[in-house]
Amino acid sequence: MIELAKEAFTNNMYNGNMEALPKGAYKARIKSAGLRHGKDSKVFCVVNFVVEDHEHFDGCFASKFYCLYDKERNQDHIQKQVNFLKKDFSVLGLPDNQINSKSSDCLDECCESLVGRLVRVNSVKNKEYTNYYFQGLVNDGVADTEGF
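Now predict its structure.
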């Protein structure tokens, strides 16, 4: 299934969270990103981040999920998730040639490239879910939070 998820990404999100941040804009550091098995044979690309330099939520951990394989979803749903992920990779400063590489390791390399980047993220409540939207890098993505 991991190979199918990687293939879907290479050939061109349910969004979720571990602990929901309240609605608002945040600066966050990406701590990890990669593939993870979910329930019922689902495979997600998960981007984990920690809020930095916030009066009330400094140190809060959250995650954004992109479903890249789900045997119960149609191909259109998975394609939308792949497109969301690639758009977010671009917003977070990855070059198009890296995102659109045909290498079998493309997804892993993109995920590894995100780790440590300082980003802007919006949290939006949508009924029972909280969705996170990456808005770009803070300065060059490696700056301290003073420059935001």
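Residues 75-91 form the longest helix (17 residues).
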